Amino acid sequence: MESKIKHIVELSIPKIVIYTIFAIYVYIFYRTSLRVGYIYGIIIALIPLISISGFLLLKKPIWSFIILFILNYIVMGASRYITFPSSIFMDASMALCLVFLIINSTYANISINRCINPLLIITLIWLLFCILELLNPKEPGFNDWLTKVRGVAIYPLMMVILVSILLFKYKHIKWILITWAILTVLAAFKGYWQKNHGFDSTELTWLYVGGGARTHLISTGIRYFSFFSDAGNFGSSMGFSLVVFSITAFYIKNKSLKILFLIAALAGGYGMLISGTRGALIVPFAGYATFVILSKKLKPALSMLVMIILAFCFFNFTTIGNSNSLIRRMRSAFDMNDASFNVRLENQKKLKEHLKDLPFGAGLGFGSTPDKLSKDYEFSTIPSDSWFVRIWIQTGIVGLTLYIILIFLAIALGGYIVLFKIKNKELLGILSAILAGAVGLTTSAYGNELLGQFPNCYLYFICISIVYMGKYYDKELEEHEQLT
């Protein structure tokens, strides 16, 4: 009887403590809301949730990376509704993710050796070059340089490090793909809503007050942008999703994931079309062509090759579907005499004239604070309309040449890993899809500044980093098969 009473007391004490703490907390929340305001009351109310979340993220930093992945996808759309510095917010989120990783590494067995790979060296070389750009006499200043160098060089390096250390298991790739697929479907649905129900008041303000109408409400039709920064960014990202998920769906064994990825691929294709972005069309063409090269099976490779040829013939040699504004606009991407294409070429000729005496460019910070009294003002007003042209302006022909060499070296080494280092068929299909999509996005970057914008600036290097982790995933799957 005595032991039973003792057992009841031992159980009751923690409950009493919990109830007492809860009552005190409710009282503090109530008094704070009355005396200071409900906003501060809500902050007080969120403290336990934040504390618990922080503890869980410290224990499992992989979840902080997934949260970062989600934020990266929606931050530009959110900034349209809420005024906040999106780049600084993402910098802080990435830094927090890194902090969770560092703290976790003090008591968990985390190997940092995985991030020491050729891709890390490639991104470090580019970062070093960007740091040396500070010596460029045309560089506007450190603050302007710091504003631009993040997206150009720091984000790629950080993605390589975080992916290599945090996504250390094969299941982590699936978590990222599932998250990406859901976000793709949501983005396509938002685009569908804009097309069929119109733009909301905030989007209309962005179009008519912010100047978005000039590039989105055009004579060939409306270009929809979902919750992305613009239609070009939206279309290319959706094309990226189309390539990755359409290929992955044929290799993934799990039936539920197969269905999800097929839905995401269809959503990506739909989003790409309604964006009205001609440059986005190159993503599936280049992506599927890359998959044909990477595929080790003749039948799917030939099927994909036939699809590419048929699609090219449809757009380039027929007028079928020209009554549809979306198809008509996409078809114009194959027209070398297209007025928009020729304007870009003319702009590049003007830029070439300005850059002929600037082998290291106008500096990474160029264009951050254009001065109307400067002799370079006219130069700064010429639109680049391309990520590679933007790199050319900022770092000159020397920087552009180095950047292209490093990017294609990263892709070539990734292709070598897929072709010769991966044995597991499912993993081979996923990595082939990811690398093919990345090649498509690289090609599309000639027509859009998408590698410097969210979500693609993160997503692109996350995908390439996953490819470089392929040998570790393959080894894990091989050991699992041996055990079973």
Write a concise synopsis of the structure shown.
With 484 residues, this protein is mainly alpha-helical. It is built from 20 helices and 2 strands. The chain starts with a helix and ends with a helix.
Secondary structure layout:
Elements: H1 2-35, H2 38-59, H3 61-81, H4 86-105, H5 118-132, H6 142-166, H7 170-197, H8 201-208, H9 213-216, E1 217-218, E2 221-222, H10 231-251, H11 255-274, H12 282-294, H13 298-317, H14 325-331, H15 339-355, H16 377-381, H17 387-420, H18 425-444, H19 456-468, H20 470-483
Antiparallel strand pairs: 1-2
Helix pairs in contact: 1-2, 2-3, 3-4, 3-7, 5-6, 5-17, 6-19, 7-10, 7-11, 10-11, 10-12, 10-18, 12-13, 12-18, 17-18, 18-19
How would you describe what is shown here?
Helix content is 75%, strand content 1%. The protein has 20 helices and 2 strands. It has helices at residues 2-35, 38-59, 61-81, 86-105, 118-132, 142-166, 170-197, 201-208, 213-216, 231-251, 255-274, 282-294, 298-317, 325-331, 339-355, 377-381, 387-420, 425-444, 456-468, 470-483; strands at residues 217-218, 221-222. The chain has a two-stranded antiparallel sheet with strand order 1-2. A hairpin with a 2-residue loop joins strand 1 and strand 2 (221-222). The longest helix has 34 residues, at 2-35.
